[in-house]
Amino acid sequence: MKSGAAWLASATQEEIDGFLGGLSENALLALPWIFDFWALPHQMPPEGAWKTWVILGGRGAGKTRAGAEWVRAQVEGATPEAPGRARRVALVGETFDQVREVMILGDSGILACSPPDRRPKWHATRRVLEWENGAVAQAISAHDPESLRGPQFDAAWADELAKWPKAQASWDQLQFALRLGAHPQQVVTTTPRNIELLKAILQNPSTVISRAPTEANRAYLAKSFLAEVEARYGGSSLGRQELEGELVEEIDGALWTRGMIAAAQGKPVPGQMRIVVAVDPPVTATKRSDECGIVVAGADTRGERKDWRAAVLADRSVRGASPDGWARAALAAMEEFGAERLVVEVNQGGDLVADVIRQVDPLAPLREVRAMKGKMLRAEPVAALYEQGRVAHGRGLGALEAQMMQMARVGWQGQGSPDRLDALVWALTDLMIAPSGRIGDPSVRTLGA
Description:
single chain, eight-stranded mixed β-sheet
């Protein structure tokens, strides 16, 4: 079902004029404050007797507005003086300043969302909002879990819980305080982070979840903002978290942590590099088969070995392609980036792998590699390069980065086969671990040349 805002965006001018013309003066004046009309689907509370509603969203997805409007719906009655469903509300944020500046006084905060006749008063010294019907909301900092001992509430709004400094202690104390009324409820608005508390809340049977990417709220965001962040972070693990509102999890003992990958995303790509395309072919070629990992990487190997720097430039992996299809995809990547050769794993297909490629291009330069050690042992030296800060990541590597974070010291923890990761390991091994070419060779390409 479309929201009123969505209907207005697609309606003709004649339809809009007819709709507005049919409203009374009072209804027309009230329309801007009727959130049910303007809300996006993820901003509307789910039905049912839930205890916790978690809104997971990207930056600017409208989470704060949803939280503020939910509080309004809890405390407001049919008239300004009439009681609502809740009379004691906890407003909990990362810091007291965040509660005041974002949840209460912000552009999408409670005061901005409230119509003039329903607007509560902010008592700064007491750190409370007070409505004309007697309902109050108390501002609380997650830095001070002990401040939740003593007060009691029948509703709560927890903002950016994944950033709370003392998250578990603050959440626990809030649950003990949420004990008034027939069915106390709480809403959590947060951009997801990989913390145990958030994962536990999401798995609780009494929790309902709404999800929304930044894109969902594009009508209320600057076009330049969306264009810039999508170009810079789209497809990366950071983008999946901050723009898509996706919970990017890390596993115990991961060879690559999110912090390591974020550091690689922030490093500049070397300007002069020897470039290769690494290929990890699938065993079969069906829609359900493993992917063919195809990763483009380069390295600046001038000077001493400790000074070498590498960059992962692109992930051109394909799924369900025929041998001819993945061979053409790999050769296309080689031509696109001016790579000197293909590095191809031949464990699965032996000589047939090289034959497939040479059927497409008989002169394609190949280096055939064979795995003599397990995936984790092959990956460890490459992960060490990341720990040393010697690898940069280009854009659009989100699927590859997700596989990287699922390789642990006890082995691969993901589903299927990590073909993208295998291709990455082969590429960086060829470039940095066991190199056979150096800057200065005629085949080495200078980026931008």
